[in-house]
Specification:
The chain is an alpha/beta fold. It is built from 12 helices and 12 strands. The chain has a 6-stranded parallel β-sheet with strand order 4-5-6-7-8-9, covered by helices on one side. A 4-stranded mixed β-sheet has the order 10-3-12-11, with no helix packed on it. The protein has a two-stranded antiparallel sheet with strand order 1-2. It has 2 domains: about 90 residues, Enolase-like, domain 1; about 220 residues, Alpha-Beta Barrel (TIM Barrel). It binds magnesium ion. Magnesium ion binds next to loops.
């Protein structure tokens, strides 16, 4: 069974003496938000007063090597630092009167193609999978992702084959295993899925196990995608260096914010690897970032999040993400959402 009851947003609003405020946040699925909020409040917040938000990259280094370094460097502390870094970039873009993607310099002015990541959960029957996929095609989607990782990989094969048959070969199809396998099962599943023309196989293995990803990548022609649980630039460098990843899914709400996100994307570009960020930000910040890198490909979306808590919601239309026009990083929440969902 796969289900999500609620999301938790941990975040920060930073005010400046120029009268401009910026908001940053990170997101967890159902638990851990309080830990991250505590990290923001106790490890980072006290070090911000008196700083100039234009020195955002220097501030990033100072915070990274500051109070959090000994107990953190990956996970809750980088998620907390993500919120602060996003808020600082939000301030810089608002100060310039530009959407973040224009402040950073666009690599692609046209709208970014999207893929629907909501196309097939493990608890759906094969009939449901087929119906859902066809419905999404009708809505204009040209790229879909479904879950795999059942105990018997032959069942995964039957489900993927049914969807592939239903949607034909003109639609991109990806699968996501959410780290369910060990190396032997991952290699077995990849063999079974090999002829389904998959755009990628996502998170087949434990995200710290770079070596096993490399072995798997050598054993299959299906491109390996990962990054939503990779928290450092160094780890991405090693994945790239060892040919253990083919699609980088770096998440701005987990890697430490916009600053290291851009580093990882540039690193991937140097390896001729595409970036398709994980939608852990509900697409709000990534809709900017994918526009500023030449190696962008697809933006991951869950359409229900178009009706999220943000002041300027992401806008999807006809299989594309429309360019955000408002100054900032699209990271401000509505006052109503803050009031309604506040905890503590
Ligand atoms: Mg995933």
């Amino acid at each position: 069974m796969q289900f999500v009851t609620h999301l938790e947003f941990a975040g920060v609003t930073i005010a400046t003496d120029a009268g401009i405020s910026g908001t940053g946040y990170t997101v967890t699925v159902g638990h851990g938000g309080r830990v991250i909020q505590e990290a923001i409040d106790t490890l980072f917040a006290d070090d911000l007063p008196g700083k100039d938000p234009r020195d955002v990259r220097e501030i990033w280094q100072q915070l990274y090597f500051g109070k959090s370094h000994w107990i953190g460097r990956a996970g809750a502390t980088t998620m907390a630092q993500s919120a602060i870094d996003i808020a600082l970039w939000d301030i810089n873009a608002k100060a310039a009167g530009l959407p973040l993607w224009q402040l950073l310099g666009a690599a692609r002015h046209s709208d970014i193609p999207i893929y629907n990541t909501h196309a097939g959960w493990l608890n759906h029957s094969i009939d449901q999978l087929r119906d859902e996929a066809l419905k999404l095609l009708d809505q204009g989607y040209t790229a879909l992702k479904m879950k795999v990782g059942l105990p018997d990989s032959r069942e995964d094969r039957r489900r993927v084959e049914a969807v592939r048959k239903a949607i034909g070969d003109g639609t991109l199809l990806m699968v996501d295993a959410n780290q369910k396998w060990d190396l032997m099962q991952a290699c077995h599943a990849a063999r079974l899925l090999q002829d389904q023309d998959l755009a990628w196989l996502e998170e087949p293995l434990h995200p710290d196990d770079i070596r096993s990803h490399r072995v798997l990548a050598q054993s299959t022609s299906i491109p390996i995608a990962l990054g939503e649980h990779v928290y450092t630039t160094h780890a991405f460098r090693d994945y790239l260096e060892y040919n253990a990843v083919a699609v980088v899914q770096v998440d701005v709400c987990r890697i430490g914010g916009v600053t290291p996100w851009l580093d990882v994307a540039a690193l991937a570009n140097a390896f001729n690897i595409r970036v398709c960020p994980h939608a852990g930000d509900l697409m709000q910040v990534h809709q900017h970032l994918v526009k500023v890198i030449p190696n962008n490909w697809l933006l991951e979306v869950i359409p229900i999040w178009e009706r999220g808590p943000f002041r300027h919601q992401v806008r999807l239309q006809g299989g594309k993400c429309l360019a955000p026009a408002e100054p900032g990083a699209s990271s401000d929440f509505t006052p109503e959402a803050l009031e309604e969902f506040r905890i503590g």
